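Run log, item B.
One chain of 156 residues. Sequence copied directly from the ordering sheet:
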Amino acid sequence: MAETVKCPQCGQPYSVETKLEGRKVRCRKCQTSFLVSLAPASDFSSFLDEEMQAASPPPSAPAEPQEVPQHARPQPAPPVSPPTQRKPRRRKQRDWGKVQRNLVMIGTMAIVMPWFQAWTSGRPFMSGGPYLQAYELGATLFGLAMYVIAYLLRPR
């Protein structure tokens, strides 16, 4: 069953279900949060509220704390569950056979390329100038290093 509730800040009326009593809602007009209270207000209580607002207490008298009605008290927060533990992520298993094949391929290319370049230019291997010799020797050693690493990564 729907009841009418007004926003305490701006007075905007809302039609709310009775199951929302005691819950916090937000006014769409002024964005104020308030508790839904469906207690019937009598004409006498509204008259008293107006009279109390009109009469101001004397400046020397301390303000008395007003008791909050039971239906307007904030509801206790629901218990908070502890944060869920995440499972540690498993590292993807590396395919060492694939790594080994790639190293052998790179090593073969590093060794074959200088030989192929020497053969296509019509000169013997390691017969060029010092820079060409350093390149051919370095490429060959790099290729051999790839073979050694691939050998060390072999399955045992």
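Observations after the first pass:
- Residues 96-121 form the longest helix (26 residues).
- The first strand starts at residue 2 and ends at 6.
Flagged for discussion on Thursday.
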